[in-house]
């Protein structure tokens, strides 16, 4: 039996430097944003270098993924199904997160509790929009 013969339809990824480099460049981007927002001299340069390295790492990482899928043939039908299903679950989780966030906001604004003073937020917004309520 050959050593390179596959016995399963799954793709076992090789070790990659891109996750570590992406995390360090995201950290550099965050540090640069904090430095820039607080007015440090070289904060803008750190912010731009972090952004450029993050974009570069993303391009190189996707280059490797595309190379594995097309030229190396590692993305079998089962792997493609798994990637699509994973993306679908991610999108559904994001939708559910935003639904829960806005549900909580509308619930607390429509029926305010005693702890926040019983203030109905949408009434204040309506008064502010119509010019009745002034600061």
What does this structure look like?
By secondary structure, this protein is mostly helical. It has a domain at 16-75: Orthogonal Bundle (Helix Hairpins), CATH 1.10.287.70. It is built from 4 helices and no strands. The chain has helices spanning 18-37, 43-70, 77-110, 121-129. It starts with 17 loop residues before the first helix and ends in a 6-residue tail after the last helix.
What is the gist of this entry?
By secondary structure, the protein is an all-alpha fold.
Write the SSE topology:
Elements: H1 18-37, H2 43-70, H3 77-110, H4 121-129
Helix pairs in contact: 1-2
Structural descriptors:
mainly alpha
CATH topology of the domain at 16-75: Helix Hairpins
CATH architecture of the domain at 16-75: Orthogonal Bundle
Provide the CATH top-level class of the domain at 16-75: Mainly Alpha
Q: Beta-sheet strand percentage?
A: under 5%
Order of helices and strands: HHHH
Q: Which term fits the overall shape? A: flat
Number of strands: 0
Arithmetic mean pLDDT: 86
Number of helices: 4
CA distance, first residue to last residue: 81 Å
Low-confidence stretches: none
Largest sheet: none
Rounded Rg:
25 Å
């Amino acid at each position: 039996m050959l050593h390179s013969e596959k016995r399963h339809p799954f793709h076992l990824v090789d070790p990659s430097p891109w996750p570590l480099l992406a995390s360090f460049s995201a950290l550099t981007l965050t540090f640069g944003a904090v430095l820039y927002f607080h007015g440090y001299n070289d904060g803008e340069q750190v912010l731009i270098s972090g952004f450029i390295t993050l974009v570069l790492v993303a391009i190189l990482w996707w280059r490797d993924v595309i190379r594995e899928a097309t030229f190396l043939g590692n993305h079998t039908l089962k792997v493609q199904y798994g990637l699509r299903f994973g993306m679908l679950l991610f999108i559904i989780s994001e939708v559910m997160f935003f639904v829960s966030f806005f549900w909580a906001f509308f619930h607390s604004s429509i029926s305010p509790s005693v702890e926040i003073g019983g203030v109905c937020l949408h009434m204040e917004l309506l008064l502010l929009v119509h010019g009745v309520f002034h600061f």
